[in-house]
Fold this sequence. Notes:
The structure holds two protein chains of two kinds. By secondary structure, chain A is an all-alpha fold. Chain A has helices at residues 3-18, 105-111, 164-168, 182-185, 203-206; strands at residues 151-152, 179-180.
Amino acid sequence: MNSKSLTLAALLGLSSFSLPAAAPRMPKTNLATHDVGGNGCRSCHAPHNGSLANGGTQSTGAILMWSRSFPASANTFLVYDSATMANKAVELGGTALSASTDARMYSLLCLSCHDGVTSSFSPSMQTVNQVGSKAGTALSLGLSNDHPVNMPHDPTRNTSLQAVATVTASLPLYGSNNTVQCGSCHEPHNNGNTRFLRQANNAAGCTTCHL
Amino acid sequence: MKPETPAARELNAQADTYGFLARVFGSHPTEESLSTLAGIAARLGIECPNSLSASELGREYTAVLTPGPRYPASCEPVLRDRWTLPAVLKRGPGETGETTEGPPAGEARTLAEPGRRFRRGHLIKWIGDLRKKVVERDRLGYYRAALEVAEAVLREEADPVAPDCPPARLVTRLSQRPWNPGGEAHTAGHRLRDLRTILPTMPKLKTPASVRGLAGILILCVVLSGADKQSANKKSLPKQAQPVSEPSPLIWPLPPDPPRIRWLAQYSDMAKVKKPVARKPGWLEKVTGTKTVDEKLELRKPYGVTTDKRGRIYVADTELKVVFVIDPGAKAVERRAGDSRTPLAMPVGVAVDSDDRLFVSDAALHSVICFSPSGQPIARFGTTVLGRPGGIVIDRQRNRLYVADAKEGRIAVFDTGSFKFLSYFGGPSKLRQRDNGTFLSPTNVAVDRQGNIYVADTGNYRVQILDPTGRFLRAFGTQGDAPGEFIRPKGIAVDSEGHVYVADAEFNNFQILTPEGQPLLAVGTLGDEPGQFALVAGLHIDSEDQIYTTEMFRGRVQVFQYISQRGSVEGKEVNRSGN
């Protein structure tokens, strides 16, 4: 290493001390039961373990031995990742998958644990939730009377709904057609309102979306 | 992203088109692809860098252009770079004709070389389109068809009648190619038809005869569901039935590696299945004389899956509260729902013993229900010892039933003859501890030929292996996104050669690992096409090494075949990672 790069390194080091980067914006956390087994963030978020495939320090050093012809850089799973997850497309029941951006990924992450079967937690996974299907009909097999996952919030079709902007002022809607996903009502990092709700479970909570 | 190496930068600058093709063909080079590649390079007037083999080129480009570590879709060499975006070449200011999407500015720049523009653009566009059409159905077919298209486009280029290759004309010509006769927009049905058109022209794949027979049977069975619908209404083609007469060309990994897994069949929407006449005819049927009823059976939220000696597939549907019994040979579907006294409430795990008795774990009833081979519930047990039973498995040599208890964090052991509870294996992990032999939400369990017990320790992101006495043998896996790591390991099974298969609901694939945890292969990605998964849950392997998976999102069972490479030179598992 020559002196120039040493100086540069020193400068960089100094600057990082004198100008500390702004702390990343973290959601207020109160993980409660989402701190599964004391794993903290790792209960849901998988770190990249810097494996060989990532080009980082080798941890497992594992590559797929039956598939050696793949470039090593491609040997890592694409998993939950805020930057890329919306690029993975899936639909809640129903029609074909498309390669388009799909907000439903946000719910899939929840459902990989809350499958209603092996989790001790309650919400059932809904395989069908068609727009406009009534609560408890045979179509939805009684599961869509709550948890309107993947329902577009569309005041033009249902005039008893608040305007989209009114909702999104306090609750997130996902995707281009403003669908309700798990994260619309739930903040999985904060159980302050119990049941990981974004808002207190009272009458005011209703009127955020409903007129 | 990795920094661009000087060699790679040079290659990038030198050959856009060639680079693309090199990545397509070079990822899995064969003699055919290499010679084609050389030919294309020569015709484009691009100097082929002899210092690098095509496969190295492929790696180089992937390393440079892939915008971050990715897992390739269904283990194919995905072309995740600027070319694979649905971007069509941007038109120049003076051009007329149909409008196309313009790529981002950066792409336009890279393609903006005058004269070469449309040729390259259309080459890329059409290869990209072709990929979309057939990639999930037939990866090898895609590869071969891509070759064909590339050559066709280059022939067009060489055509003295159309020296400038007017884009509209190229589009017209290419859209009239056999795999898209009408030039229509592509739907699932068209893809299917395309595949049928393309497949017979392709060189035959080498397939073990046994696999071919099995695949034939299974696919035949699946066909029944969709056939009438397809002819009646093209637009509402069911996505499940892919009636190809030849074995599915969907294999993992791709050549040149020897194939290990072949996709066989899938079951989801079993519409128009004749309802079996096992039950007593009601008054209506007595009046009308109907013996069978057309009934729409569809899997809604399947979890556990298993098979019996006769090859029937048992699928527990937790939402419909039934266990479907799919008989591929007889093309029949039955249901087990319990009787009126103890109806199933949430069937999760299924297992069949050597007498074809069916055991079903029910998470809501906190118990296991045993059905006679004819479908009568004959026992319900475990209520006092089970918290939330999940996957179950039967050790037929020891007549034991193992039940993964997700709530209590342990494995409950029962005798399949007397239904008596024998013991617990393991116990719940303490907070922030991952002690060997303790479990956090174990969801599924499997046994190998020696009777060792494999537990998907979901909450601890690992697989634990116990001996038949419940003693801890070993564990592998940690939380992470690299091969051999897990996030939500669920279904688990062991094949006849001892490979461990673990389905992961977050990766939406199943990984194949050695008994020690060395990952060998991963199959699948998120999606609903064959070979893809949407919330994969249960996994089972039968005595023929056929792999059955369930998906809770799509309501689907998929069947794969493990292709043993034992005895072949290529099948050596040693020294495969050195290069």
